[in-house]
Amino acid sequence: MRPARRALLASPLALLCTSMPTRPAYAGAQLEEPIADAVRSALAAAIADDGTPQEPTFRDVEEKLTYWRWLGRMGDKLKGRKREYQTRVEFLKSVWYESKRAGLEPELVLGLIQVESGFRKYAISRAGARGYMQVMPFWPRLLFPRDGDPRVLFHTRTNLRFGCQILRHYLDRERGDLFMALGRYNGSRGKAEYPNLVFGARRAWDIPLA
Q1: Considering the domain boundaries, does residue 69 fall inside one?
Q2: What is the pLDDT of residue 21?
Q3: DSSP letter string over 184-208?
Q4: pTM given for the model
């Protein structure tokens, strides 16, 4: 495994996670479906760490100020879930970065995390989905057969990157239909309950930044 990707896919804390008690998560489960080799390669490349620092870039000062206002507003709302300031800020920075990297709205990703895991890093669903975005263990094994240890899904940045890129993959498969893509993400394609929960949670994070 390349050192850069190892930094993304592993941490000492992640290797201890299986001994930590967790409450069941809401999530259903992404379904393991056959995917073309080209799609698998593209997904693996999107998820692999290329060594680029996890820092956003801005076109101008106003865009940068919007980002910092976003961190402040979202941080205030997240205080009840994550009390420690630095942990809260680093989590939100990762959400912003991985959302934008996948072409998703950060507020949508926050809403999905709220529904999936209630912002619990070590959440495990009855189906075995793991972490903030409740990623199924088959994904690391499918995309990285040689080193796809599912315990990496408890590493914050890894979990967010998998989750965002998987949702992007489903969104592309559904030709931009977010309702259907969310259904695929939850393993309940075509049913309204899960997408409606995520849409409702997203609205709660859609806070004016002015």
Answers
A1: yes
A2: 39
A3: HHHT-TT-SHHHHHHHHHHHHH---
A4: 0.85
